[in-house]
Amino acid sequence: MSNQNPERTTGPWNDTSLSASARAEALLAEMTLEEKVSQLGSHWEMREDPDTQGEVAPMEDAMSSGKLPFESEILDGEGHLTRTYGTVALSVPEGAADLRQRQAAVVAANRFGIPAIAHEECLTGYTAYQATVYPTSLAWGATFDPELIEEMAAAIGADMAATGVQQGLSPVLDVVRDARWGRVEETIGEDPYVIGTLATAYVKGLQSAGIIATLKHFAGYAASRAARNHAPVHMGRRELIDMIFYPFELAVREGKVGSVMNSYADIDGEAPAASHWLLTEVLREQWGFEGTVVADYWSVAFLEKMHHVAADQAEAARLAISAGLDVELPHTGGYRTLAQQVRDGLLEESVLDARCVGCFGRRPSSGCSTAAPMTPTGSRSSTRRWIWTPRATGAWPARWPRSPWCCSRTTASCRPPQSRWRASGSPWSDPPPMSRAP
Fold first, then answer.
1. Distances (CA, A) of 195 to 75, 173, 274
2. Which DSSP letter does residue 185 get?
3. How far is it, in rounded angstroms, from Cα 147 to Cα 72?
4. Listing from the earlier edge strand, what are the strands of the sheet with 259-262?
5. d(Cα 416, Cα 413) in Å, to the nearest integer?
6. Which residues touch 391 (CB under 8 Å, ≥6 apart)?
7. Sequence-distant (≥ 6) Cβ neighbours of residue 333 within 8 angstroms
8. pTM of this prediction?
9. Could you read off the pLDDT of 190-231 as tens digits, one per residue?
10. CA 146 to the chain's CA centroid
11. Is 172 helix (H, G, I), strand (E, B) or coil?
12. Phi, psi angle pair for 246, to nearest 5°
């Protein structure tokens, strides 16, 4: 491992006149195996809060054993910082100060000065203390108003960018057809066309603010047997492609999304986190996806613990990275073994390089990114608080868009009244007048 304060190394990767690919290749040629692996890992600082009960994520306690302290984790750099604002109730100034300190430590600890990506949840608004809460995504589906959803997502993204966050783990594109499933409220609905159209609008809005959007959960998570969470999906490929893939494909091709997160549920016996067909052949080769694939929390560990397709965490990591999964979240586990696996001849270094290339350009001021760094200031952008206010017209659209999957019942459920969200006062800032307010 590197020392705590390595001497800064510069080279062609800092030359903005070169193409991103040329700079990435130059950086890869200079990096050690450990430095490459560090860009594919993450750290989650689990703070103790005596006023908080329960877990931030399911199975958090059971899956967090073996996690390294922050100072040890960042010695060769770090890929992601997990939920600085969303783990405990930190005010904006507190969260910004904490994130600023951690990013400075990450930059100082690696000789290339590469910062981490800070990610947060943001489905119905930025998941941070006192942040604006927007209507559930089921309400988005009821509007079938892509322009409004894009506007909402842009406001969410502006909030996140103002506090130093670079990636949001939203939207959810799961096609849900069984109301027993426990996460129905996170979905947009049951119609692939409606879901794909509105999720693509969300992606465009969030990314217009400089925040990387993340499609989840790829794919089939809500189609599990008997609607049980994490249960297997038994579905033929034609139905999978026609019904489940469509929203994701639309958001990749039309929305140019920057990131995708895998599903937990295996499809006909194959876990998505270890599926080369899903993460490489379909996503990258057929659809042209050029972003990063991030693990749903502990998906790599689950290849051993739940799916039982790996003998240990090292094999789980090898299966995941070979399939096309770039970044292990929420903290580095099995991926920590990848450097040694390359040395032992169990993994080709070219596989490691391929996963790193997609991550470099996503870093704020990483040397390979042309984007300006996002420094948390604790200040707020123009922020809006919305409430649901149906118009009293009672009118329905004369002709509502109908997708090829709609039955008469689905079509009727997709017809909302002429509703809009209107802006009201926010404790964070005074909202500007909204052109779409009723």
1. 42, 6, 26
2. G
3. 45
4. 214-218, 259-262, 292-294
5. 8
6. 417, 418, 419, 420, 438
7. 66, 67, 298, 300, 301, 313, 317
8. 0.82
9. 999 999 999 999 999 999 999 999 999 999 988 888 778 888
10. 21
11. strand
12. -50, -50
